[in-house]
Amino acid sequence: MLQCSVKNPAAPGANNTNNTHRESGSEITMSGEIITQAAGSAPGGAYYFDELEVGMRAEYTREVTMDGILMFAVISGDNNPVHLDEEFAAEHTPFGDTIAHGLLTASYLSTVLGTRLPGPGAIYINQSVKFRSPVHVGDQVTAVVEVEELIEDKKFIVLHTQCLVGDKVVLEGKATLMPPKR
Q: What pTM, to 2 d.p., does this model score?
């Protein structure tokens, strides 16, 4: 049986000098400038469709921990030993040790989309994901989303999505979302 505990993270700090805002490893940029997180006019700071522009980008960075992998295994029910058992993973995979669940890594995209761009109230319509490389305990994963297309008739947005470890793309795809309705 897996057991896990959840610790409350420290309250995130912000540095708003020089138009820069960083909070818990997240950033939002537009046209090369860093803009304040959740700066839209919708509830929770989300962006309405008409506030979005092609090229708007947001990021979120998180370190992958064994505690996080264990919690994801408990929540998802995915107790595949490639994620949980170092001996099994070393013997039966080409990776040499345990790897994070692919959907744990992909969930960091949901963090960006649901809390930063377009933000609270956004509804997922579709997400494609291609896994490019495994993610290991201790890796710093940066989830990046960028608005690629605005679909006016449906008020949907299409975003390029990717997760990186350093400069290496470990996951990429596209997401379609419905921003909050005005």
A: 0.79
